[in-house]
User: Which sequence fits this backbone?
């Protein structure tokens, strides 16, 4: 394209400018209008992304040169953007959903004192996310990976004076940090390994990690150092798992619901948690050569989706239900990507994963925003035991939530139906492989079970919230009315997307065709068997019915169901295990070290600090102020000098 | 004048100087310190006279005249200062003026009487002109000269107090 | 002999006498005196009269030793008696308990020192010292004692401050003096012939007239060695001619000191403000 450079650079730079303007506004002046630069910049960014998306027609990639950040000797760190269809897909999703949620936030965060700060960090997050998606170098991607982690921390801990929010933000950041350490090890090992190939040996450390160089070096490494490559891939995948909240790193996402609801919608449903999936898709040419790692990842995804679905079934907090649902759906994505272990299936796997990612972004964001409406109307009460039967009070939210829930459950012809189906189809294909197919057969079974559970808990949540006897908590006060138009309009757009995006993209083959234009992907004709579609429809409808039944009954009080319910409510005691095994020992070590610092090192330092004072006090004793003492000192001096002269002088 | 003679005289001057130094460093009463200074100066004068005789000129003697002059000036000024210092604190103790000391040092306790119990005191006689058989002895007087007093009084002299009583 | 042409390093020895260093004897004397002074100092807070008697005995022994080391001539004997008396007076001064006893010791010291000065033909200095020290200073001292001293023995008269260190310091200083005194010295006397005019005050020279050249000395070596500057008139002449400025300045200092003493000793209540 002629002016690709400038247009594609607008996509990250516009939110950056919005962030700076909002930050300045948060310090001085006009806090109430902080939404104007934010929404404006995000809309501009979304429009540019869509423009490039629509006009893209080449099959390769293009590099948009940028800013030379640092140049020392032959080490050039430059910020450039790599544009291809894979990243354009995610980019348009990210920017448009961000714009919608920013418009929603104007209504939701209306009275909050930190209004401008919210929008500043929001735009900063969008900037980091777009740069992450557009980065041309793995190390640059890691930098913006940390950037999104930081903005997520700032937004989860938005109400930082609330202790639970502060703790949740710290937990998110620390869990991500642990995963990112492994990620960094993987990156460094990869750079080292590439340096040993012919191609990479002549390049500086930074440019070895350009994605193109990685893709070029991958086959060479797979031949000669396949063990090292497996290790590298494993470490990189741990990073992806951490960011996308898979088992064992899933513990931060439910706590992250302490942040404002639009933040949950944006970051923890649609964009940031998809960064891990994007990383895996991006590194597909690398991981194709390490099937063992992909199988591991797929199993982790499967386990995650199952246990998250179980936990979601027994949560009382509506947002926690949606959070666990996100974790579960991300497990689907990882299962799909893991299916790329089978020969020649990687393209289809990536296509399936990206398809489900796009549709999931739409309906999960819609669901979160609806939950935000409920919370706003109920006076910040989100515990489902406190309210029910809200369909009369919140009619429009009722409809929107229903649309989102149906899409999530996989009701036929809605978005989730097609995308979930494509994931299951990939798994089915993979299970027919001779060597490793058994893994994927088991994972297919887990996928069906999870789909059932998904439908159950989704409909349970919907029916419990909006149907049944009307009960409004006292905290609602005069809030109990439906949301304003500024909040409903973006939700309507998202609802449209949830309804039609599946049908538009999936069966028509548009998305697979589009994504196949990514370099190193091959177009693969792939048909989905009809029995799969029928099976998943039956599962979805059955699950909705079961959920409806459950929602009308009180909570289980005895027997196996009760113990399962308690188990689920306590998050399968995984958090408790982490606390006991990791957090408490670290705290004890920290306290011990603090004791050493205060008492031992502190004592030594205080002693050294007290030394001049002691010397001074010793000197003070000479100043008696009395004449005889002074004269004695004078006489001593004279006598000493006299003796010295007499005994040493040579006449 | 031979060497040994001048040697002896110089030694004498040195001894007098040393004695004056000991007196200056150990004494606690201001005027006794001052007298030690004068002793030191007289030792120096002896030295100078000895040199004058040894070199057979008048230089030593002239310098000795200067020393004498300055000693006299110093005596006058020093005793004037003693008088004004006494007016402030009614004591001749040189260690009483220690206001320039560091505050961490302990102040000397006033009136340290330790070790003085064994000192004999002098018998107190009745004032002249009074017949001890006519009037009762005032209580501040003791008939027994061998009985040591238990404390040393800071009061003014009994003579003066008696005189004041009589008007 | 032209005094200006005398080479100080090459002077003939007086009377052909060789200098004998008796360093060890002098050092012994010094140590004895120091110990004696220390022991006698205990008299201030007498813990045992034994120590005081021991100190006195040591002092007597030291005096005897000194007495024994001099040639037996009238002049020497008289001089050593005066010296011992001076030292005794000094020791009495520093070890006395009553202030007036100390004053008496001081007077003895000064008078004995004057006796020594008389023997060195410094008549004027001796007389002036007696008048100023043993006269004026003692009297001022007694005046101050009269109005400042309490009728009883005060503790600041009796108690001594660190006598051990003071005695050690003084002894070491005396040791340094004694050592330097007993070195085989190269300080040789510069003999001058008073029969020749060497001063501007010589009679016959008018102001503005150039000095006549200094004639050669007519005195013999033996006569020169016998020469002693014994004339007070010579001192007076030297005082008012060669050292006139110094003497006048001394007089000015005396005046200033007088004024200062009067100002300092004023009674503060008479301040008009």
Assistant:
């Amino acid at each position: 394209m002629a002016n690709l450079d400038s247009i594609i650079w607008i996509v990250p730079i516009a939110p950056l400018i919005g962030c700076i303007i909002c930050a300045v506004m948060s310090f001085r002046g006009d806090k109430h209008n902080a939404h104007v630069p934010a929404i404006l910049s995000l809309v501009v960014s979304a429009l540019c992304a869509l423009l490039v998306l629509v006009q893209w027609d080449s099959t390769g990639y293009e590099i948009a040169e940028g800013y030379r950040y640092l140049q020392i000797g032959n080490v050039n760190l430059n910020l450039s953007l790599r544009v291809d269809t894979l990243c354009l897909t995610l980019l348009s999703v990210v920017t448009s959903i961000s714009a919608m949620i920013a418009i929603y936030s104007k209504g939701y965060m209306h009275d909050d004192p930190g209004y401008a700060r919210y929008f500043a960090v929001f735009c900063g997050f969008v900037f980091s996310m777009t740069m992450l998606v557009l980065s041309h170098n793995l190390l640059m991607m890691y930098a913006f990976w940390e950037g999104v982690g930081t903005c997520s921390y700032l937004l989860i801990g938005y109400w930082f004076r609330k202790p639970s929010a502060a703790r949740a933000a710290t937990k998110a950041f620390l869990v991500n940090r642990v995963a990112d350490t492994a990620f960094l090890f993987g990156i460094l090992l990869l750079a080292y390994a590439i340096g040993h190939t012919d191609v990479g040996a002549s390049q500086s450390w930074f440019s070895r990690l350009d994605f193109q160089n990685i893709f070029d070096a991958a086959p060479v490494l797979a031949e000669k150092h396949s063990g090292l490559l497996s290790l590298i891939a494993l470490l990189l995948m741990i990073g992806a798992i951490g960011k996308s909240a898979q088992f064992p790193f899933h513990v931060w996402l439910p706590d992250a619901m302490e942040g404002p609801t639009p933040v949950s919608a944006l970051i923890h449903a649609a964009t940031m948690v998809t960064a891990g999936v994007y990383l895996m898709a991006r590194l597909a040419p690398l991981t194709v050569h390490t099937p063992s790692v992909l199988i591991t990842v797929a199993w982790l995804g499967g386990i995650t989706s199952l246990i998250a679905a179980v936990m979601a079934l027994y949560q009382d907090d509506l947002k926690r239900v949606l959070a666990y649902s996100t974790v579960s759906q991300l497990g689907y994505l990882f299962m799909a990507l893991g299916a790329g272990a089978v020969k020649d299936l990687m393209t289809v796997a990536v296509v399936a994963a990206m398809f489900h990612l796009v549709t999931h972004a739409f309906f999960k964001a819609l669901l979160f925003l609806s939950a935000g409406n409920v919370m706003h109307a109920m006076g910040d009460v989100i515990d489902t035991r406190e309210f029910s039967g809200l369909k009369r009070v919140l009619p429009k939210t009722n409809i929107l939530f229903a649309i989102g829930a149906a899409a999530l459950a996989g009701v036929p012809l809605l978005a989730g139906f097609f995308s979930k189906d494509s994931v299951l189809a990939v798994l089915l294909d993979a299970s027919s492989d001779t060597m490793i197919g058994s893994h994927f057969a088991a994972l297919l079974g887990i996928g069906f079970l999870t789909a059932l559970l998904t439908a159950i808990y989704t409909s349970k949540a919907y029916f419990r919230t909006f149907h049944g006897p009307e009960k409004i908590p006292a905290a609602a006060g005069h809030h109990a009315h439906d949301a304003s138009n500024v909040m409903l309009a973006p939700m309507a757009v998202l609802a449209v997307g949830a309804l039609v995006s599946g049908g538009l993209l999936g069966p028509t083959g548009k998305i697979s065709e589009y994504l196949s234009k990514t370099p190193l992907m091959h177009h693969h004709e792939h048909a989905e068997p009809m029995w799969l579609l029928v099976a998943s429809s039956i599962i979805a409808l059955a699950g909705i019915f079961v959920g409806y039944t459950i929602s009308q009954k009180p909570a289980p009080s005895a027997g196996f169901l009760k113990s399962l319910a308690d188990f689920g409510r306590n998050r399968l005691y995984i958090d408790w295990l982490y606390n006991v095994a990791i957090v408490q020992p670290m705290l004890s070590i920290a306290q011990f070290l603090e004791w050493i610092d205060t008492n031992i090192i502190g004592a030594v330092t205080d002693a050294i600090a007290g030394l001049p004072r002691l010397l001074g006090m010793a000197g003070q004793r000479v100043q008696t102020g009395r004449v005889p003492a002074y004269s004695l000192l004078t006489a001593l001096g004279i006598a000493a000098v006299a003796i010295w002269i007499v005994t040493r002088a040579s006449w | 004048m031979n060497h040994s003679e001048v040697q002896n005289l110089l030694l004498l001057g040195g001894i007098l100087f040393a004695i004056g130094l000991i007196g200056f460093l150990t004494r606690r009463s201001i005027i006794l310190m001052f007298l030690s200074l004068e002793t030191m100066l007289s030792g120096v004068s002896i030295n100078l006279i000895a040199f004058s005789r040894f070199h057979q000129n008048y230089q030593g003697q002239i310098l000795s005249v200067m020393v004498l002059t300055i000693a006299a000036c110093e005596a006058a000024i020093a005793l004037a200062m003693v008088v004004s210092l006494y007016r402030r604190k009614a004591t001749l103790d040189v260690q009483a003026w220690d206001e320039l000391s560091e505050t961490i040092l302990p102040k000397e306790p006033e009136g340290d009487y330790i070790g003085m119990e064994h000192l004999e005191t002098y018998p107190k006689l009745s004032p002249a002109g009074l017949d001890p058989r006519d009037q009762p002895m005032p209580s501040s007087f003791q008939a027994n000269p061998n009985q040591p007093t238990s404390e040393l009084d800071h009061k003014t002299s009994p003579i003066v107090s008696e005189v004041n009583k009589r008007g | 002999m032209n005094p200006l042409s005398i080479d100080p390093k090459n002077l003939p020895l007086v009377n052909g006498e060789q200098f004998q260093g008796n360093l060890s004897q002098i050092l012994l004397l010094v140590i004895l005196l120091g110990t004696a002074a220390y022991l006698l100092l205990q008299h201030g807070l007498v813990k045992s009269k034994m120590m005081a008697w021991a100190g006195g005995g040591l002092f007597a022994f030291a005096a005897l030793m000194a007495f024994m080391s001099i040639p037996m001539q009238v002049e020497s004997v008289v001089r050593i008696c005066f010296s011992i008396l001076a030292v005794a007076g000094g020791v009495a001064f520093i070890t006395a308990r009553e202030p007036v006893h100390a004053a008496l010791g001081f007077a003895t010291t000064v008078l004995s020192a004057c006796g020594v000065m008389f023997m060195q033909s410094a008549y004027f200095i001796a007389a002036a010292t007696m008048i100023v020290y043993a006269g004026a200073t003692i009297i001022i001292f007694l005046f101050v004692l009269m109005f400042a001293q309490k009728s009883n023995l005060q503790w600041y008269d009796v108690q001594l401050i660190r006598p051990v260190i003071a005695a050690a310091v003084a002894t070491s200083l005396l040791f340094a003096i004694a050592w330097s005194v007993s070195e085989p010295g190269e300080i040789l006397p510069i003999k001058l012939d008073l029969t020749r005019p060497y001063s501007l005050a010589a009679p016959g020279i008018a102001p503005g007239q150039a000095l006549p050249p200094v004639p050669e000395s007519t005195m013999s070596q033996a006569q020169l060695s016998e020469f002693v500057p014994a004339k007070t008139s010579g001192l007076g002449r030297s005082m008012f001619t060669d050292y006139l400025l110094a003497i006048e300045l001394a007089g000015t200092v005396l005046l200033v000191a007088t004024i200062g003493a009067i100002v300092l000793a004023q009674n503060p209540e008479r301040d008009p403000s």
